[in-house]
Every structure is written in C-alpha cells, then in structure tokens.
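Chapter review: from sequence to fold.
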Amino acid sequence: MKRKILVTSALPYANGAIHLGHLVEYIQTDIWVRFQKMCGHECWYVCADDTHGTPIMLRAEKEGISPEVLIDRVHGEHTRDFAGFHVGFDNYYTTHSEETRACANDIFARLAAAGLIETRTIEQYYDPLKQMFLPDRFIKGECPKCGAHDQYGDNCESCGSAYTASELRNPYSAVSGARPELRQSEHYFFRLSDHRCQSFLRRWTQSEDRLQPEAANKLQEWLGEEGEDRLTDWDISRDAPYFGFEIPGAPGKYFYVWLDAPIGYMGSFRNLCSRTGLDFDEYWKDGSSTELYHFIGKDILYFHALFWPAELEHAGYRTPTRVFAHGFLTVDGAKMSKSRGTFITAESYLAQGLDPEWLRYYYAAKLSATMEDIDLNLDDFIARVNSDLVGKFVNIASRSAGFIVRHFAGRLCTCDESLHAVDAIRDRRAVIAGHYEGREFGKAIREIMALADLANQYVDRVKPWELARQPGSERELHTACSNAVNLFRLLAVLLKPVLPALAVKAEDFLNVAPFTWDDGATVLAAGHAIRSYRHMLTRVDRRQVDALVEANRQSLAAAPPPAPQRHAEHQEKAAARSAVEAEGPPVGGAHVALDEFMRVDLRVARIAEASHVEGADKLVRLLLDVGPLGRRQVFAGIKAAYDPAALVGRLTVVIVNLAPRKMRFGLSEGMILAASDPEGRQPGIFLLSADAGAQPGMRVK
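The token string follows.
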C-alpha cells in the first residue's frame, strides 16, 4: 500500500557550522527517506534552522549585526553544506517565520484553554554585569545529582538528569563569569505535572514500537511509576532582551526556544503545503492516514518524547508515530577535538575535495537502529571505502562495460537469469528492504557487499579480459559482460538510498530512468544500449584525509572560558595583578604577563593507564582521564622515578593545549607537570598531584 509519510530531523541551531557529528543524523534520515521514495511512497522530508534564543542574540550583538541578518547568513551556509552531502530536504526553512509563529500561538492558546498554562512569580538568575536574566544554558555549575562540573542549568550531560538552574551548585554566568543573582520575575509554565499529562505519557512512551527499547526504558526512569509524579512543570517563557516570538498579551515575555523549535517542524511543513497544495491537517491533526517520524540525537530525547507529545496531545494535534534516537559520533575512538583536528566541519570536508558519498557510505555501514555511538575511524574509513565501493562495486562495471561498447556497439545480450549471483540478489532484496525500513543500515550494507562478492566471483571466473583475446569467443564475451553489467545495475539499485549521486552516474551509464526499488527484481532486455563507461568513483588518498585533519586542527591556546567570580572580585583581581607586576623580577626568571600565563590550560587528570614504552629508556606511556575533555595519551620521561603500575589511579596535572607531538612511539597529546632540582642537589623527579576531592577536568589556575 502507498503510504503518506512526514519525516523530520532535529533542527540545527543557527549559531554555528554543520560538522561531521551533525551529519550522522541528516545522512541517516536522508537514506531512510530516499528508500521510502524509491518504494513509491509519498514521503516528505522537512527541516529548518533553529533560530531563536540568547546565543543568537549575543553572537549578533558581538558581530554588530541584527539577529535577522545573522540567521539569514547561517541559513545559506547550512543549506550549502546539506546540499553538498546530498541531503534531499523537500523543504529546509527557518523557525523565525510567520508559519511557526502562528502554530506556536495556536498551541499556546489551546493549552491555556485546557488549563495547562499558568503564571508564577519565580526567582531567576540574573547576570549583574550583562544586566539580563540568564537562560538555563547560560548558567553553569555542578550537577545537583551527580556532582559533575561545568554542567548547564537545565540538564546534565554526564548523568542525563534534568533539573532547574536554581538547583545547580556553585553557579556562574557563562556569559560574563559573574556569580548570578536571584531576582523575581513572572513566568509562564506548561503544567507537565498535571495528571492528564503524566497519565498520557505513561501510555504513549510504553506503546509498542513508539520508541526504541532503550529510549522507552530511559523515559520510564524519568516518569517513574504511577503516583510518583516525578515530572515537573516546564518553564516556557523568557524575559527581554531575547530573540524570539513575544507571547501574545504578555509584553516583554517571549516563548522559550525549546517551545517553538519543535513547532518549527509544523511551520516548515505548513510552508511546504502553501507551495504544493498538501493538506496540513491531514498530517498534523487527523493523522489516521498519515505517519509522522522524528529523527533526533539521544541528547534531546527528553524534549521530543515528553514535552513535545504532551503539548501536541493536549492542544488537539496528532502525536509522532515514532521517535528515532541515535548516538553520538566519535573520531578515532574519542570525542571530536579541535586540537587534534577531528572536529571537522562539513564545509572543510568538501573544500578539501573529499567525496561526500565516501562519508555517506561509511556512516551507513556503521549505523543501526540503536542509540549506540558510532566511530569514524579514519584508517578504517579509507580501507572500507576503497575496498567496498571501488574494489567491489564500481569495479564490476569498469571491468566489463568497455568490451560491450567496443565489440558490440554498446548493446547487451540476454542476461542469464539463472546465475547464482542474480538469484541471490533477488532472494535478499526483501531482507535488505527490511533493514532499510528498520534503520539497520549496517546490516543492509553487509548484505549488499556479500552480494557484490558473488558478482565479483562471477567476473573473476569468466575473465572477460581473456575472452576478448580468444578468437571465436565473441558470444561468451558478450554474455559474460552483459551479465556483469546487469549485476552492477542490481547492486546499484540496492545502494541508491546511500549513494544517490553515484546512482545518477550509474543511471546515465546504463541509459535508464531513475531507479525504483522494483528495478532490483528485473534485468535489462537484450538489445538495450548502454553508454560508454566513465570513471564513477576515485579511491580515498591517505594524503587527503591527513590534509583534512590538518585543516581542522586548531590551537587551544585561546583565552580561557569565563570562570565563576563575583562583581566585587574584579577590583580585587585588578589590584592583585597590579601588585604582582609592581614587584621585582621573580627568582626563577623574567616576568610573564598574567594573560600570557592564562593561555596555558592546566587541568587535573587521573592516570587511567600507565605502561613502559618498548625501546625507550626514559619514557612511560600514560593514558589520562581529563573528565569532560576526554582521554589523552601522554609520553612522560619519568621511567627512572616511577613504576607504571603504581601510577594508575593517581591524580596529576596536565597541560592540555600543548600542540600534539608526533613521536615514533605514537602521538603525545599533552605534558604532565613534575618537579626536579635542576642542579641535581636533590636527585629525583616528583610528579605534581592534586588534593583529595579534585576531579578530572578541573582547571588549575
């Protein structure tokens, strides 16, 4: 049956560039949408820039432009980057639109009429230096649940807990570094704690197939059992100055960005409806004949599987058919890092000349239906693309097409449909379709590459290059090459959702209409004319990847982030700085300016692993846990003073923004601090430690 499907990806924030971590979601969604369209379903894919909030306002202010000018520029950049990776939105819009405003006002009015909106006077953090109330994401401190440092004011990235900013321990303003003050302000709340919302969400989140099992389990933890009432009301308003939609009838009060961001899905679709004649209500109100799917990262599951469906349900709209959450991207087993050059932007990837379909294929080979993180291992990336796409897939066409053109005027003969490889492809089509539908793209790729192996085994067996040299073998050559071209076509059909640009090249070479999924069950007729084969895909060159990493490598020797401090402390610090600079030269050497010293980023680290370095007389290899900064490998010349086994678990101090040094033993990504007597009167090396209570990642200053 022909399905009617609306699909969204999470809205990228209009305050930064698209990077390879973002692309995991958009490529995953695009593959799924392309598969649905190949199957003949009516499938619409919409998205938009998320354009509201304090970060946009502050960045525009810093650049000396209006927020509208900023978001318009970023929209162009995002559109360019998505197009570069063949992400085929049917509409890519903006949340700063009249369509989104109208939908937000409508939902707010409906929730108010249902008795689910109320106003309260609350105490809210205020930045006395910036003279503004601080959104939760601009207040940082220690998580009230697990104690993790430098967490935002709405949820903890370490343990996943949600809370209010007032619950943070030792809060500070992420804008100015000042200690915020609590001041009173009237705010609007969505009553998520209402028994109607809680009862609905317990049913909705546990409905079969609504969420992945691990997501449903996580939501069950947040909801608790019947009668526990764990959910708290949601503050949906912000005070001026703020860039967003003003709440109707409430001057100086604005919708919190997380209220109108998911409503941006509706705004983008309404804009599409105005251009195409689609029925908005059929997809957003009735819902009985349509399907709605959200692809999101696991970090925003709370908003999309609790707040959003509760809003929709009680405002009279349909709720999502399913919410698909995915994990994060790591590069070479670690978080993306600017200092290591692995925080790679989409723009730089394309600018370095790397084929976007290399990345699409690699992501597809790694993606599953779970919320597990995926790793972009750069060595594996090179090997897999070169082996699978060049060595297995396009190789089938390149080794056979030329003979068809030169010897048979480009016309195929009858394909031998009894071939084992042809039968196998037809037999596995339904299984592969099930993998695409279920977002098990890695399983689909493994199936397709196994079939490509069978096709290559056939070509290796018939050896068309040898048949071409044997007089009287024209018929065998024609059959062998026609079979090979048909096998290439069948595989190209299966890979089209992942490799849309390469599929277009294959369609042109084969002289056929755009592939549909059903084309994977048929072969080309005898006499069909193909075009001359042109190279479709190049191999990945290691030098390209190295250049990409180098182009994205950034020094972390920039000014440190704002630190917690009271306004009165500014005068104290200025006086202290003057006093230090007024003193004579220190015994240890010449003066160094405070700003210069502060460029050195010193952090507390825990030694997670320590081992001898084979072939080195002085070095010990240390694997350091630096908390939120991840793990760093450091080679330290302390072998004479310490047994590696005795170092594991110790706290020490490491410079984390030292330029990485490539040694013959590996990459050293920092330097630990130790003391010694330069004149040798007290022989030995003494590792610096931190007092008990210090945590990995804490800044030393």
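Two observations follow directly from the output. The CA atoms of residues 130 and 176 lie 7 Å apart. The first strand starts at residue 4 and ends at 9.
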